[in-house]
Design brief:
The protein is α/β, with parallel strands linked by helices and 268 residues long. Helix content is 43%, strand content 23%. The protein is globular and about 55 Å long.
């Protein structure tokens, strides 16, 4: 082989290798769009967003974020336009007849029933909620299991919304008697609503722990990709990076910082 041919061959091999290194596989992940601080669609951040990015980006995957009203994320997954969907458990899979590969538990919500203290409610079990106006989040009647679904079906004043900030606003405006949501989402939107002159968020609130933890994961179209995620998730937990993600969003001064960033949205 001549020197010239050797140089050309080496250059081609080097270019091919560098292309492989720099190339990344794009995967589209569907998130609920109103789930702060779990999902912050304005800045492509949040606990759930950071978890899947921290797990998959080191493997060469590029995350394409798709933020949708909560119930539409599973519809988009079924339609074939999404590779991964967040906020999934076995109830979600069965209720929506989803096909795919569910990850290990990636995070858990802590759902409570919230009411204004002056109502003097004393809820002890989920069925106690059936006689009160209750605004929950979209798909809760599927996601939270049979007991919750029975209460919702027997409550003519039960409704759901994809925008969880609306739940908090209507509670403090005394438009609904009870709301049901994750405690961190409630605290986030309560603090955000406090900036409004029209809503008094200083009113005392009672919290009823009727539901327990709600474990969630990601549903993947690809079994191999799901397995890679599970391995990476365990590494994140073992190295402490997983806990750092939660600490980033659930500390005392986090909400104010997030609100500041939301006023000037950026794209990663």
């Amino acid at each position: 082989m001549s020197m010239k041919s050797l140089v050309i061959t080496s250059a081609v091999l080097l270019f091919s290798f560098s292309s492989l290194v720099s190339a990344s596989e794009k995967i589209t992940v569907a998130f609920g769009e109103k789930l702060a601080p779990w999902v912050l669609s304005e800045t492509n951040e949040g606990i759930i967003v950071d978890i899947i990015e921290a797990a998959m980006t080191p493997l060469g995957y590029e995350i394409e974020h798709l933020y949708l009203p909560y119930a539409r994320r599973t519809k988009s997954y079924k339609a074939g336009g999404v590779d991964v969907v967040s906020d999934v458990n076995l109830n979600t899979i069965q209720g929506h007849s989803l096909k795919g590969y569910l990850s290990d538990t990636a995070y858990s919500y802590e759902n409570f029933a919230f009411s204004l203290h002056n109502k003097n409610f004393n809820f002890r079990q989920i069925s106690d909620l059936k006689n009160y106006s209750l605004l929950s989040w979209q798909d809760a009647a599927i996601h939270l299991g049979a007991t919750y679904a029975e209460m919702a079906n027997n409550n003519p004043q039960y409704s759901e919304t994809f925008d969880q900030s609306v739940q908090v606003k209507l509670l403090f405006l005394d438009k609904v008697e009870v709301i049901q949501m994750d405690v961190n989402i409630f605290d986030y939107y309560r603090a955000k609503a406090a900036n409004s002159d029209k809503i008094d968020t200083t009113q005392k609130v009672d919290r009823f722990a009727l539901f327990g933890a709600s474990p969630n994961g990601f549903l993947f179209k690809s079994e191999a990709m799901r397995d890679k995620f599970n391995t990476q998730l365990q590494k994140l937990k073992a190295t402490g990076k997983y806990q750092k993600i939660f600490d980033r969003y659930l500390t005392a001064d986090t909400i104010e910082k997030i609100h500041t960033k939301e006023s000037t949205p950026v794209t990663k």
